[in-house]
Amino acid sequence: MGEQRYTDLDGASVFITGGGAGIGAALTEGFLEQGARVAFVQRSDASEFCDEMAARHGSRPLFLPCDVTDTEALRRCIAEAAEAHGPISVLVNNVANDARHDTLDMEEADWEAALAVNLRPYFFATQAVVPMMKRMGGGTIVNFSSISYMVGAAEMPAYTAANGAITALTRGHAREFGRDGIRVNAVAPGWVLTERQMRLWASPEALGAFLERQCIGRHLTPVDMVGPVLFLASSASSVITGQCIAADGGVVTVAA
Protein backbone atom coordinates (compact mmCIF):
# COMPACT_ATOMS: atom_id res chain seq x y z
CA MET A 1 0.00 0.00 0.00
CA GLY A 2 2.78 2.39 0.78
CA GLU A 3 6.46 2.68 1.63
CA GLN A 4 6.23 4.66 4.86
CA ARG A 5 7.42 2.63 7.84
CA TYR A 6 6.46 3.29 11.44
CA THR A 7 8.82 1.13 13.46
CA ASP A 8 6.86 1.53 16.69
CA LEU A 9 3.90 -0.24 15.07
CA ASP A 10 5.99 -3.36 14.43
CA GLY A 11 4.67 -5.90 16.93
CA ALA A 12 1.98 -3.57 18.26
CA SER A 13 -1.30 -5.12 19.39
CA VAL A 14 -3.98 -3.47 17.24
CA PHE A 15 -7.75 -3.86 17.57
CA ILE A 16 -10.08 -2.67 14.77
CA THR A 17 -13.87 -2.67 14.75
CA GLY A 18 -15.31 -3.60 11.36
CA GLY A 19 -11.86 -4.62 10.13
CA GLY A 20 -12.76 -7.16 7.47
CA ALA A 21 -14.48 -5.11 4.76
CA GLY A 22 -14.35 -1.70 3.12
CA ILE A 23 -12.16 0.85 4.87
CA GLY A 24 -11.65 -1.56 7.75
CA ALA A 25 -10.10 -4.22 5.52
CA ALA A 26 -7.66 -1.68 4.11
CA LEU A 27 -6.72 -0.67 7.66
CA THR A 28 -6.17 -4.27 8.70
CA GLU A 29 -3.85 -4.82 5.78
CA GLY A 30 -2.07 -1.53 6.39
CA PHE A 31 -1.25 -2.47 9.97
CA LEU A 32 -0.18 -5.97 8.92
CA GLU A 33 2.27 -4.40 6.49
CA GLN A 34 3.76 -2.52 9.43
CA GLY A 35 4.31 -5.79 11.28
CA ALA A 36 1.49 -5.24 13.77
CA ARG A 37 -0.53 -8.03 15.35
CA VAL A 38 -4.07 -7.25 14.26
CA ALA A 39 -7.36 -8.42 15.70
CA PHE A 40 -10.70 -7.24 14.41
CA VAL A 41 -14.40 -7.75 14.94
CA GLN A 42 -17.08 -7.91 12.31
CA ARG A 43 -20.60 -9.33 12.16
CA SER A 44 -20.26 -10.95 8.70
CA ASP A 45 -17.82 -13.77 8.01
CA ALA A 46 -14.31 -12.57 7.20
CA SER A 47 -12.53 -15.92 7.04
CA GLU A 48 -11.78 -15.63 3.33
CA PHE A 49 -10.30 -12.17 3.86
CA CYS A 50 -8.08 -13.55 6.65
CA ASP A 51 -6.89 -16.34 4.35
CA GLU A 52 -5.99 -13.73 1.74
CA MET A 53 -4.07 -11.65 4.28
CA ALA A 54 -2.16 -14.68 5.55
CA ALA A 55 -1.18 -15.66 2.00
CA ARG A 56 -0.17 -12.14 1.07
CA HIS A 57 1.66 -11.05 4.22
CA GLY A 58 2.55 -14.25 6.08
CA SER A 59 0.59 -12.97 9.05
CA ARG A 60 -3.02 -13.85 9.74
CA PRO A 61 -5.25 -11.32 11.49
CA LEU A 62 -7.37 -12.58 14.35
CA PHE A 63 -11.01 -12.43 13.26
CA LEU A 64 -13.52 -12.40 16.11
CA PRO A 65 -17.14 -12.56 14.93
CA CYS A 66 -19.13 -9.96 16.84
CA ASP A 67 -22.17 -7.74 16.61
CA VAL A 68 -20.77 -4.54 18.08
CA THR A 69 -24.20 -3.49 19.30
CA ASP A 70 -23.77 -6.27 21.90
CA THR A 71 -21.52 -4.44 24.35
CA GLU A 72 -20.68 -7.50 26.44
CA ALA A 73 -19.68 -9.45 23.32
CA LEU A 74 -17.49 -6.55 22.22
CA ARG A 75 -15.80 -6.49 25.62
CA ARG A 76 -15.17 -10.23 25.45
CA CYS A 77 -13.60 -9.90 22.00
CA ILE A 78 -11.29 -7.13 23.17
CA ALA A 79 -10.21 -9.27 26.11
CA GLU A 80 -9.64 -12.25 23.77
CA ALA A 81 -7.55 -10.12 21.41
CA ALA A 82 -5.44 -8.87 24.32
CA GLU A 83 -4.94 -12.47 25.50
CA ALA A 84 -3.78 -13.51 22.03
CA HIS A 85 -1.66 -10.51 21.04
CA GLY A 86 -0.88 -8.71 24.28
CA PRO A 87 -2.53 -5.59 25.72
CA ILE A 88 -4.14 -3.39 23.06
CA SER A 89 -1.85 -0.47 22.27
CA VAL A 90 -3.79 0.79 19.23
CA LEU A 91 -7.57 0.90 19.00
CA VAL A 92 -9.27 1.89 15.74
CA ASN A 93 -12.99 2.51 16.11
CA ASN A 94 -14.07 2.16 12.49
CA VAL A 95 -17.41 0.35 12.41
CA ALA A 96 -20.37 2.30 11.02
CA ASN A 97 -23.61 1.97 9.09
CA ASP A 98 -24.51 4.90 6.86
CA ALA A 99 -27.83 3.51 5.64
CA ARG A 100 -30.02 6.35 4.40
CA HIS A 101 -33.00 7.31 6.52
CA ASP A 102 -35.54 10.10 6.70
CA THR A 103 -36.24 12.13 9.84
CA LEU A 104 -40.02 12.02 9.47
CA ASP A 105 -40.09 8.26 9.02
CA MET A 106 -37.85 7.27 11.94
CA GLU A 107 -39.31 5.49 14.95
CA GLU A 108 -37.61 5.64 18.34
CA ALA A 109 -36.34 2.09 17.87
CA ASP A 110 -34.76 3.08 14.54
CA TRP A 111 -32.95 5.98 16.18
CA GLU A 112 -31.67 3.81 19.02
CA ALA A 113 -30.52 1.13 16.58
CA ALA A 114 -28.58 3.66 14.51
CA LEU A 115 -26.74 5.01 17.56
CA ALA A 116 -26.13 1.48 18.82
CA VAL A 117 -23.85 0.78 15.87
CA ASN A 118 -22.58 4.27 14.97
CA LEU A 119 -21.74 5.65 18.42
CA ARG A 120 -22.13 3.30 21.38
CA PRO A 121 -19.30 0.87 20.41
CA TYR A 122 -16.86 3.78 20.20
CA PHE A 123 -17.41 4.63 23.84
CA PHE A 124 -17.37 1.10 25.20
CA ALA A 125 -14.40 -0.11 23.13
CA THR A 126 -12.46 2.87 24.46
CA GLN A 127 -13.62 2.08 27.99
CA ALA A 128 -12.33 -1.48 27.57
CA VAL A 129 -8.84 -0.63 26.26
CA VAL A 130 -7.97 2.41 28.39
CA PRO A 131 -7.11 0.43 31.56
CA MET A 132 -4.61 -1.76 29.70
CA MET A 133 -3.17 1.31 27.94
CA LYS A 134 -2.74 3.00 31.33
CA ARG A 135 -0.84 -0.01 32.64
CA MET A 136 1.46 0.12 29.59
CA GLY A 137 2.07 3.84 30.05
CA GLY A 138 0.19 4.90 26.94
CA GLY A 139 -1.56 4.01 23.72
CA THR A 140 -3.38 5.50 20.77
CA ILE A 141 -7.04 5.56 19.79
CA VAL A 142 -8.23 6.56 16.33
CA ASN A 143 -11.95 7.13 15.87
CA PHE A 144 -13.68 7.29 12.51
CA SER A 145 -15.97 10.27 12.19
CA SER A 146 -17.27 11.64 8.87
CA ILE A 147 -17.48 14.94 7.04
CA SER A 148 -21.21 14.24 6.64
CA TYR A 149 -22.08 16.31 9.70
CA MET A 150 -19.65 19.08 8.73
CA VAL A 151 -21.30 19.66 5.35
CA GLY A 152 -24.89 19.20 6.50
CA ALA A 153 -25.56 15.94 4.69
CA ALA A 154 -29.25 15.05 4.55
CA GLU A 155 -31.06 11.70 4.51
CA MET A 156 -28.99 10.30 7.40
CA PRO A 157 -29.73 12.37 10.53
CA ALA A 158 -28.86 9.66 13.08
CA TYR A 159 -25.60 8.90 11.28
CA THR A 160 -24.55 12.54 11.08
CA ALA A 161 -25.53 13.11 14.72
CA ALA A 162 -23.41 10.12 15.76
CA ASN A 163 -20.40 11.38 13.84
CA GLY A 164 -20.63 14.84 15.34
CA ALA A 165 -20.75 13.12 18.73
CA ILE A 166 -17.71 10.98 17.85
CA THR A 167 -15.66 14.12 17.23
CA ALA A 168 -16.82 15.56 20.56
CA LEU A 169 -16.07 12.27 22.31
CA THR A 170 -12.61 12.24 20.73
CA ARG A 171 -11.79 15.65 22.16
CA GLY A 172 -13.16 14.83 25.60
CA HIS A 173 -11.25 11.55 25.83
CA ALA A 174 -8.05 13.20 24.62
CA ARG A 175 -8.33 15.58 27.56
CA GLU A 176 -9.40 12.89 30.04
CA PHE A 177 -6.63 10.42 29.26
CA GLY A 178 -3.81 12.58 27.92
CA ARG A 179 -1.85 12.55 31.19
CA ASP A 180 -1.92 8.77 31.03
CA GLY A 181 0.01 8.88 27.76
CA ILE A 182 -3.06 8.01 25.70
CA ARG A 183 -3.67 10.02 22.54
CA VAL A 184 -7.12 10.13 20.95
CA ASN A 185 -7.75 11.49 17.47
CA ALA A 186 -10.32 11.13 14.72
CA VAL A 187 -10.31 10.78 10.95
CA ALA A 188 -13.28 12.17 9.02
CA PRO A 189 -13.42 10.61 5.54
CA GLY A 190 -15.18 12.13 2.60
CA TRP A 191 -16.92 9.86 0.12
CA VAL A 192 -14.75 6.74 0.04
CA LEU A 193 -15.79 4.40 -2.75
CA THR A 194 -16.04 1.05 -1.05
CA GLU A 195 -17.83 -1.86 -2.70
CA ARG A 196 -20.91 -1.02 -0.62
CA GLN A 197 -20.92 2.61 -1.73
CA MET A 198 -20.53 1.63 -5.39
CA ARG A 199 -23.34 -0.90 -5.12
CA LEU A 200 -25.86 1.28 -3.30
CA TRP A 201 -25.32 4.95 -4.03
CA ALA A 202 -22.58 5.70 -6.56
CA SER A 203 -24.55 6.63 -9.67
CA PRO A 204 -22.61 8.44 -12.40
CA GLU A 205 -24.54 11.63 -11.59
CA ALA A 206 -23.80 11.42 -7.86
CA LEU A 207 -20.14 10.65 -8.47
CA GLY A 208 -19.74 13.56 -10.85
CA ALA A 209 -21.48 16.02 -8.55
CA PHE A 210 -19.42 15.00 -5.54
CA LEU A 211 -16.14 15.18 -7.44
CA GLU A 212 -16.95 18.79 -8.26
CA ARG A 213 -16.94 19.52 -4.51
CA GLN A 214 -13.42 18.13 -3.98
CA CYS A 215 -10.18 20.04 -4.38
CA ILE A 216 -8.44 16.83 -5.45
CA GLY A 217 -9.76 15.66 -8.79
CA ARG A 218 -10.09 11.93 -8.19
CA HIS A 219 -12.38 9.74 -6.15
CA LEU A 220 -11.22 8.37 -2.81
CA THR A 221 -10.62 4.68 -2.10
CA PRO A 222 -10.27 2.76 1.18
CA VAL A 223 -6.48 2.73 0.80
CA ASP A 224 -6.51 6.53 1.04
CA MET A 225 -7.57 6.22 4.68
CA VAL A 226 -4.66 4.00 5.69
CA GLY A 227 -1.93 6.65 5.73
CA PRO A 228 -3.76 9.08 8.04
CA VAL A 229 -4.64 6.29 10.48
CA LEU A 230 -1.11 4.84 10.59
CA PHE A 231 0.28 8.33 11.17
CA LEU A 232 -2.11 9.01 14.05
CA ALA A 233 -1.50 5.57 15.55
CA SER A 234 2.27 5.93 15.48
CA SER A 235 4.77 7.99 17.44
CA ALA A 236 5.20 10.19 14.36
CA SER A 237 2.16 12.08 15.70
CA SER A 238 3.34 12.01 19.31
CA VAL A 239 2.16 15.56 20.12
CA ILE A 240 -1.12 15.38 18.20
CA THR A 241 -4.24 14.59 20.19
CA GLY A 242 -7.84 15.70 20.32
CA GLN A 243 -7.85 16.42 16.60
CA CYS A 244 -10.18 15.46 13.77
CA ILE A 245 -8.49 15.23 10.38
CA ALA A 246 -10.73 15.57 7.34
CA ALA A 247 -9.41 13.02 4.85
CA ASP A 248 -11.84 14.06 2.16
CA GLY A 249 -9.97 15.33 -0.88
CA GLY A 250 -10.69 18.91 0.14
CA VAL A 251 -14.48 18.99 0.37
CA VAL A 252 -14.56 20.66 3.77
CA THR A 253 -12.05 23.27 2.58
CA VAL A 254 -14.35 24.11 -0.32
CA ALA A 255 -17.46 24.15 1.87
CA ALA A 256 -15.96 26.24 4.69
Automatic annotation (TrEMBL):
A molecular function (GO) term: oxidoreductase activity
Signal peptide location: none
Ketoreductase domain sequence ranges: 12-191
Protein name as it appears in the record: 3-oxoacyl-ACP reductase
Entry similarity comment: Belongs to the short-chain dehydrogenases/reductases (SDR) family.
Superkingdom, taxonomy of origin: Bacteria
UniProt keyword Mitochondrion present: no
Keywords: Oxidoreductase
